[in-house]
């Protein structure tokens, strides 16, 4: 099986022989690992000054960096981060990455259009609008999903893309940012419509949100994604409980504690990796990864430790073995 085959099998909650599939939503340590700035951190002003010939080379360089990351760290999927991220450049970056990679890895891009936790300065205004003008907020949420569906139709026609990661965050460590009746009004139906449209186009869908998702866990699963990411232990989410509640309904991605990778001891990191593998592998279609991403400021050695434990431990378990 290719890495792409393995990842798709996990998303479809089929047993995967050998090691548990692995990926990261983002791997930002590209300077330390490869001496190159991550695509998301590159200056848009430089892009505007490039000739088209330079842009072709830049796309190829970003594609090679994505593929190098997947190959070095044995990821089964690549989250393509186009920069700039308009629909045309997204399509071109997918094409460049697929050309470089062949069909070896699963390719996804960001595809969420649902309302997320607003920035602090906007939170009060958004809350007031939801209370005083709910029809307007509903209409805006509908328009955002409409635009995302049109974008997906373009990307489907261009080809090369396997799926979307939906990365709007809904929860703090204490729980959802909206009261549940508001969540059911302004998020739940729009999320379900977006996922349904993506799936009807033949795309796979991974829904990501940090924080304590337990109060909305069933709502997220009912919306119909193939997988949930990131099952955040810093938000009090225990992967064993998630497996018990919904492990027979959706693939699961996570949940190595990012906080421990940055500030914990080696022993704590190893324990977190082993716990995620042990509990996650009890459900069909488990995909191993952190509880967020490999972010700037994390020590590369800690991620390498996490990867090494995965290699040592996961071959005995396999995805979906009981």
Please explain how this structure is put together.
There is one protein chain. This protein has 322 residues and is an alpha/beta fold. The chain has two domains: 1-109, no CATH class; 111-230. It has helices spanning 3-11, 30-34, 44-49, 52-73, 87-101, 120-132, 134-158, 180-186, 188-200, 217-222, 239-246, 258-263, 266-280, 300-317; strands at residues 77-79, 106-110, 163-166, 171-172, 175-176, 204-208, 227-230, 251-256, 286-290. The strands form two sheets. The protein has a seven-stranded parallel beta sheet with strand order 1-2-3-6-7-8-9. Helix 11 (239-246) links the parallel strand 7 (227-230) and strand 8. Helix 6 crosses helix 7 and helix 7 packs parallel to helix 9. The longest helix is centred in the middle third of the chain and has 25 residues, at 134-158. The protein is globular, with a radius of gyration of 19 Å. The mean pLDDT is 96.
Structural class: alpha/beta
- Can you count the beta strands? 9
Helix content: 40-55%
Sheet of most strands: 7 strands, parallel
Mean pLDDT, to the nearest integer, reads: 96
The shape is: globular
Number of alpha- plus pi-helical segments: 14
Which strands sit side by side, in order, in the main sheet? 1-2-3-6-7-8-9
Order of helices and strands, N to C? HHHHEHEHHEEEHHEHEHEHHEH
Termini gap: 21 Å
Which stretches are poorly predicted, pLDDT < 50 over at least 5 residues?
Answer: none
Q: What gyration radius follows from the Cα positions, in whole Å?
A: 19 Å
What proportion strand?
5-15%
Please, how many domains? 2
């Amino acid at each position: 099986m290719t890495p792409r085959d393995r990842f798709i099998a996990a998303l479809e909650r089929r047993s995967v022989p050998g090691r548990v599939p692995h990926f990261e939503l983002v791997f930002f340590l590209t300077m330390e690992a490869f001496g190159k700035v991550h695509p998301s951190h590159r200056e848009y002003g430089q892009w505007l000054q490039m000739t088209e010939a330079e842009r072709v080379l830049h796309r190829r360089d970003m594609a090679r960096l994505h593929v190098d990351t997947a190959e070095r760290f044995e990821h089964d999927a690549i989250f393509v981060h186009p920069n700039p991220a308009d629909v045309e450049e997204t399509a071109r970056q997918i094409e460049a990455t697929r050309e470089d990679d062949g069909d070896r890895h699963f390719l996804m891009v960001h595809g969420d259009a649902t309302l997320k936790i607003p920035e602090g300065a906007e939170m009060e205004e958004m809350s007031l609008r939801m209370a005083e003008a709910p029809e307007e907020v509903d209409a805006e949420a509908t328009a955002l999903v409409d635009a995302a569906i049109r974008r997906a139709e373009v990307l489907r026609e261009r080809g090369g893309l396997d799926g979307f990661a939906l990365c709007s965050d809904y929860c703090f460590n204490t729980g959802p940012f909206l009261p549940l009746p508001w969540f059911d009004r302004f998020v739940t139906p729009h999320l379900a419509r977006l996922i349904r449209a993506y799936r009807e186009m033949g795309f796979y869908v991974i829904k990501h949100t940090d924080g304590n998702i337990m109060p909305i866990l069933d709502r997220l699963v009912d919306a119909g994604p193939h997988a949930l990411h990131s099952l955040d232990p810093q938000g009090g989410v225990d992967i064993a409980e998630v497996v018990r509640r919904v492990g027979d309904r959706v693939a699961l991605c996570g949940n190595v504690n990012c906080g421990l990778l940055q500030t914990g001891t080696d022993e704590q990191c190893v324990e977190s990796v082993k716990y995620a593998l042990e509990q996650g592998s009890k459900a069909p279609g488990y995909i191993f990864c952190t509880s967020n991403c490999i972010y700037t400021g994390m020590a590369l050695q800690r991620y390498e430790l996490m990867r090494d434990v995965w290699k040592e431990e996961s071959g005995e378990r396999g995805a979906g073995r009981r």
